[in-house]
Design a protein that fits this description.
Blueprint (H helix, E strand, L loop, with lengths): L31 H12 L2 E6 L2 E6 H11 L5 H28 L4
Helix pairs in contact: 1-3, 2-3
């Protein structure tokens, strides 16, 4: 690596990061299991909601249910569909785990 000058700067035309910026890797969705896992991960992401107690951080699924229950959901159809997808993904995940256990496979 090239040396810096007294001010901590690199010589002109050089950088301290030789390999460059690391590329972000996106998780590929190749199977229905991957898609279900992504849905569950997204709906478990923390989000802030305002309640009578003040601002609270809750999972996105909980926030969606609260908005539907209180009538504050801007798009009720999308919110109910998101919850339906989450429920389906959870059931599918549980069923796959049950099948693995019955087949003697490790989780």
């Amino acid at each position: 690596m090239t040396e810096r000058d007294n001010n901590g700067r690199f010589p002109k035309g050089t950088s301290g990061n030789r390999k460059g910026r690391p590329r972000t890797s996106h998780r590929r969705i190749e199977t229905p299991e991957d898609f279900d896992e992504m849905i569950i991960d997204v709906m478990n992401m923390p989000t802030a909601v305002r309640t009578p107690k003040g601002e609270e951080t809750v999972p996105l699924a909980t926030a969606t249910m609260l908005r539907l229950a209180t009538g504050k959901a801007e798009n009720r159809l999308a919110a109910s569909y998101a919850l339906s997808l989450t429920r389906s993904a959870l059931f599918q995940s549980m069923e796959r785990a049950r099948q693995r256990r019955s087949n003697g496979e490790d989780l």
